[in-house]
Amino acid sequence: MVQGTEGYRFQNWASTYSCHPELYFEPTSVEEVRQILELAKQRSKRVKIVGCGHSPSDIACTDDYLIRLNKLNKLLQVDKKQQRVTVEAGMLLSHLNEELASLGLALSNIGAVSDLTVGGVIGTGTHNTGIQHGILATQVEALTLMTAAGEILECSDTMNPQVFQAACLHLGSLGVVLNLTIQCVPAFHIHLQQFPQTLTEVLNDLDTHLKQSEYFRFFWFPHTDKVTVFYADRTDKPVKASSSWLWDYAIGYYLLELLLWISAFFPRLVPWITQLFFWLIYSVKGEQVNRSDKAFNFECLFKQHVSDWAVPIEQTGKALGQLKEWLERNPDVRAHFPVEVRFARGDEILLSPCYKQNSCFMNIIMYRPYGKELPRERYWAAYEQIMKRNGGRPHWAKAHSCVRQDFEKMYPAFHKFCSIREQLDPSGMFLNNYLEKAFF
To answer: Is domain 75-186 given the CATH code 3.40.50.2000 in the classification?
Structure first.
């Protein structure tokens, strides 16, 4: 019988949430996962699955049983003809990237961080940017799910298709995702370019930017009209190092952390710091060529609070304009930078923020320099209200204050997801405090 560990403390990457589960498990086989669920059923315990704990929320916290699938991390099958791979859910995305590179394959899109499990990536709706591309879960062709009853379901567009629509963004509420089949593409390089513009210029030419660059995104610097535009596009050019020191973010961001820590005592400095970093690092043109996954990824150098909402793409300018106007009317509120603006194609995943609509994600942050908490409540609340007014939906893994009544308005398929969840987990084995707020 599989044994659990007592006294384990889980803490997320940002050190903003933690819990002390009664028992902690690292199963080494599908049968051990089944044994854990059976034990939980016998003792009326709840179960949560956690990946790398990168989510800046309490979505993975529990007082009962916590399971980490890090030992279920193998590449199970390669279909070179279809360019598909099947992997266990506990495999790190960083390891998958290397496996694919050795096969001459790649994922068509990944986010800024690869220290995530493949199962966790789809569980919370992880995304990157590119209006031709959906959230990362849209690359999943099939998956295997173990339910609370220990039953194994094979899910795809042709097998249990409704469960598949739900399980591609499951929040850990449907069961344990054991493995996934992922559609890949031939390996490719990315040509990265960055250049400065104003927010007005970018919004006026938004359609042009979306057409000109496959993975277009931009940073807007609060308290200014300054923007840095990032183009990322496939290229046949060989890997080429950065043509400017601005790509060496580490030095700049360590200096940023020091200055923001000082600004905690002198908050009027924040707009000046924003201006300084724009001119020193982001106002200069730069470019490089890199392997696709290395181009998409960048280091999250220090801890932060994050909120990320998706609005219908046609609301991009209106929502950003309202956020900018609110900050101008409230000069005592100091917003850290940048606001990262990305884009994603609409999809059919029931709880996807992009469900049936092309979307713009607007990611705001509040840094925690040297672990120091800085006031963010007014900024967060105003941002959420602006997002709601513009038809926004929150990123499930990041900070938000939404409850069931909000989700019922935001998601046309919310009740369908709830029905599937209740069918697969009638006793609520996979619930926790976070999910109870969402579903009840």
So the answer is: no
Q: What is the pLDDT of residues 298-310, one digit of tens each?
A: 877 678 899 999 9
Strand order in the sheet with 65-68: 23-25, 65-68, 47-50
The count of C-alpha atoms lying within 13 angstroms of the C-alpha of 64, restricted to the half-sphere facing its C-beta, is 18
Mention every residue, 6+ apart, whose C-beta is less than 8 A from residue 251: none
Query: What are the backbone angles phi and psi of residue 68, rounded to the nearest 5°?
Result: -115, 130
Rounded (10°) angle between helices 377-389 and 316-329? 150
**How many DSSP H helices and E strands does the chain contain?**
14, 20
* DSSP for residue 126: -
**382 vs 321: CA distance, rounded Å:** 13
Instruction: Look at the pTM and tell me if it is higher than 0.85.
Output: yes
Fold assignment, 189-394:
Vanillyl-alcohol Oxidase; Chain A, domain 3 (3.40.462)
The Cα–Cα gap between 64 and 46 comes to 6
Distant-in-sequence, close-in-space partners of 378: CB < 8 Å, separation ≥ 6 = 330, 333
Rounded CA gap, 296 and 258, in Å? 26
